[in-house]
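Sample entry (409 residues):
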Amino acid sequence: MSRGSILVVNAGSSSLKFSLFRTGKTTELNLAARGQVDGLGTRPRLSVKDGSGAALEERDLELAEARDAKDAVAIAGSWLKGRFAGEPLLAVGHRVVHGGPEYSRPVLVDEPVLAALERLVPLAPLHQPHNLAAIRSLRQTQPRLPQVACFDTAFHRSHPQLADLYALPWAYYEAGVRRYGFHGLSYEYIAATLPRIAPGIAGGRVIVAHLGSGASLCALRAGKSVDSTMGFSALDGLPMGTRPGALDPGILLYLVGERGMTAAALEKLLYKESGLLGLSGVSNDMRVLLASGEPRARLAVDFFVYRVAREIGALAASLGGVDGLVFTAGVGENSAEIRARVVAACAWLGFALDADANRGGGPRISAKGSAVSAWVVPTNEELMIARHTLALVAGPPAPARTIPSSAAR
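Predicted structure, serialized as tokens:
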């Protein structure tokens, strides 16, 4: 296998995150750099750290040079080329939020694939366009560089059909109106990691709580996704930083019919003004809410814990029982208080917390006598993408490409 690097790109509406992994003698991947260009179109800034977390670059950018994802790709590429000049770049892996019903695994991107992914933009209007913009930018500047699309929905294609249905006329299901599930790259990484960290539950019934600004739960059976709290869109399920989670659809009919809200206004409400921010009126950041003395901040936290515990119960029913619970992502990995409150609310399932282990961050945070174990396992979606990308391009070696340069724009 060729020695070289894999670049991972996660493009959003206001930021672009990137990671560079070096390949080893086998299929081992080592993080060389992780960075982001954030504040696109407002107050852009480039920040990069090495694999150990030490700062390599911190600087503000001119607004005119960092307006969108295309600009951000050029900035990241220029920085990487300057830092890792001469190192062969084997391929670029992209996080793409929606793969629809068709894509159940990562895929090399060509024009037909890109066209198919463009047709899914209405299913993820705030994410998919930016994911694809980064791909198109690199196809223009480095047309021979292999690019791999890795989907947040793909891991959930193992769901039984019953878990993906809505009770709508069948024609809508055939047209793609079904439950997809998201955060799949995170769940896939956890499923792949459990045999090493928690082998006793890896082959059993596990509920993974991906709790961050975006939040969802996934039910695993023998490492495969069988159900998830997110459905047709990333708005469903748990309350999130600025997203409401599950809503009675009658609320939307009311907002349109009685309050005269347009589709654009609804989109803004549901994606940017709801969730913890909307309930609390204080912040969408769980750390701020936990430290706040405002009654509505406490209410928002209480509601979040209530809904997480409620959905854990629902997924336990889907699984027919539960052998383990895993916390991951920003809140799940870092908030001992939220973990403690969720475990306490799920005591009826057989959980008992080890308070000291929980304060220490685990990995096992359940007490020795707990009938069901609880764990903290950090996720690593970027490494998952790098693994998929390397696997797809690790066949007969193609001519090496260098890190893309801004000069090629």
